């Protein structure tokens, strides 16, 4: 089972998005774990995450997190602002899936 | 009507008789001011009568400053009557032994050259002191006995009578009776009057070719003929000193230099070096000190600023900048009860302050110059034997004026900073002409891409002349606006399309100078394109030349209305009384609400009061508390008028708001700047629009705005729900009304215009930026953002309960704009989307009273960014008020961090 983590500032906006993605995961019958985290939590990860998606407002974290988590194979990317703004769970899920597919 | 005419004739006779009697004492001539004092009549009227008399040839007008009038029969030569006692006139002039030494040698040679001196051409930029130099030459000629003691010095500026170059010639050479309408008898010109002396012709390049030819004839042969006279040769013995700011390379000057034997070039201020500039400053400060009657102190840094700043209009500008600084210092001295009159950086005009920044390049020189000087230097008239030039009454009067006004303001107890502010308005306007930004280099290549070369050249020509004639500089925005406008106008005229200007009369009445010049400019247009420019088009041309096309109009009625309503029998009315008295305009209106009156009753009274105010004026409602705070909303519902309310109002606030309203600021500016006084509630308008629009505008709504529309259409891929609307701005109030109407149907994403308009709610992009490309980038981003925000509004609607998501997003959007401004940064639109979402959910949580997330290491962050935290706190005030929430430091820190870390590099 792959893990996708969403990070935003103070976890204010991602929790809702996470729920919307989960609905899509279930509908599509995928084996995927979706979790939300704050910046601080993302920095001190003690488990493996396959894809880490950042809210556009914290895109400045991308480089640091790539340095930090790149070694263990975590893909770090920024959520498309339109998908994010419109809370489009399906689109964000597709973005995550595309990143996972790149690997295999 | 007839009665009035008779009255006017009587009055003119009275003026004439007064002049005759005054003339007995003042042999040089009489000023309008002197006559106005005797007759106790407005000076402007007296001037009008005097000019009429001069036109009727009963008086001579002598172009000195101030203008002198004298009756024809007793006309005395306009001799400056200055004390001539020093051994050599040139000795005391700053730079006599250095930068001016060559010029002085030449001048002496020109005067002493046998048998009767050489005609001389003085070259130099505006403000280098050509007139003074010519006067000194005259003095020297007398001292050296080349001229008699009473030899005349006649000064004439060929740029006067701008609208009638023919008149310039008749002034110089005189007129033969009947040569034109109004020339009802023979009249001598100034050249004749200068016989036996010197005539100084300033701005000689403005003389018509015909006049130049006549001048050359005199230079070659020693005689001339009156205008319209072919018979009599008039032989005089006059030495000509001509002056011009023209480039010596220009064609016109080459003719002059060939015909006039001596050419003297006066160096610009820049060429004269710091040492001399210091001497000039020294003498100007002493002069001011004499005027004020006090020592003037100046700190070292300010002196350095004066030594180093860019001063393209040379000594003239340096002097007026010094005067402005002294006036401000005088004000501070008075208002703050200081012991000294001190010039510090605060007193310097902005462009002078910048001088200090150049210290790196010239530190050694400055240090050498000021090495034995302390941190604070002082100047006073008593020290040093510097001989003062004639004291300028106008300036002396100005100091008195400040003092008088200050004293009257001081009687009403008001704190000093406020008084200072009020007085500053006066000072600024007094000096406005000197504070004008100086000409910038136009991005001509860019503009030439859009308009054809003929137009661009024409605009060059017109603006160059306008700069000189109207004593005002025109920036590239006006250049571009005028170019685009002319292109369109010329096309229309050629096609025979009608041009109509609805405000034509308004402009003729209120901006006569600009209008007169526009008439002249139209002649260039006519010549270039062989057309005839209609009067209405001239009206449009004038608008480009008016400094602020909106301020000069009688827009008094359109200013934001101020209504003060307070509980208590006389609270509101006495507050308003104080405010109006201090500002000097009955602007604010007070409405008292005695405690026994019911709110409903009060509302009715208020509505009646509001009824009296013009329909298209916005209303600022200042109230104290309770039900009154809701009145604004009810008024705007009932009467379809823009109303903003500030509560918990105090007297200083009433003054501040009224002052800004009187100055013509719009309601948003006033509201935003004044609501900092205390927290004020604003009900935001609801915007339920789907369609988007970009407004392009120019004066006509046809020329530049059509062009802009075309460019935007071609350059930006606009989504289907976008429209570009062109709008004219002949009248700013109409424009604002139209804009408001459009706002009901469209979400206006930007206004693009050739004319600068400050809009609080809508982003503005100048036409210049559009053509240079930067504006297009900005516009693209705005379109993208508008689009995104619309989408966000839609999706949030499903997820946020109990709050109007449209309103919420708009509020956050304006918060983001405000923070960007406060932090002077900009962040990418993607990030803004994230922040909108973040803030939306935060507000929802706070409204529901839910817990929010802690910010790690908050204390450390606060220590590191104290200023930014304060700015965040101030920026969210409005949101806090609107949603009745408190946004804590934790949240502010998150917000600040998002801005700080995402800031785009410039």
Which CATH-level-2 architecture of the largest domain in chain B?
3-Layer(aba) Sandwich
Radius of gyration of chain A: 12 Å
Largest sheet properties of chain B: 5 strands, parallel
Helix share, percent of chain A? 40-55%
Number of helices of chain B: 37
Question: How would you describe this structure to a colleague?
Answer:
- The complex is a heterodimer of chains A (104) and B (906).
- Chain A has helices spanning 14-28, 39-43, 62-69, 81-85, 89-103, and strands spanning 2-8, 32-38, 51-54, 75-78.
- Chain A is α/β, with parallel strands linked by helices and 104 residues long.
- Chain A has a 4-stranded parallel β-sheet with strand order 2-1-3-4, sandwiched between helices.
- In chain A, strand 1, helix 1 (14-28) and strand 2 form a beta-alpha-beta unit.
- In chain A, helix 1 (14-28) crosses helix 5.
- Chain A starts with a strand and ends with a helix.
- By secondary structure, chain B is an alpha/beta fold.
- Chain B folds into 7 domains: 2-71, Arc Repressor Mutant, subunit A; 101-265, 3-Layer(aba) Sandwich (Rossmann fold); 270-411, no CATH class; 444-545, PTS-regulatory domain, PRD (Orthogonal Bundle), CATH 1.10.1790; 560-663, Phosphotransferase system, mannose-type IIA component (Rossmann fold); 682-781, Rossmann fold (3-Layer(aba) Sandwich); 800-906, Orthogonal Bundle (PTS-regulatory domain, PRD), CATH 1.10.1790.
- A 5-stranded parallel β-sheet of chain B has the order 4-7-10-3-11.
- In chain B, helix 12 (314-335) runs antiparallel to helix 16 (416-435) and helix 31 (774-799) packs antiparallel against helix 32 (805-823).
- Mean pLDDT of chain B is 78; it is low at 74-87, 383-397, 428-443, 550-557 and 677-689.
- Classes of the chains: A alpha/beta (104), B alpha/beta (906).
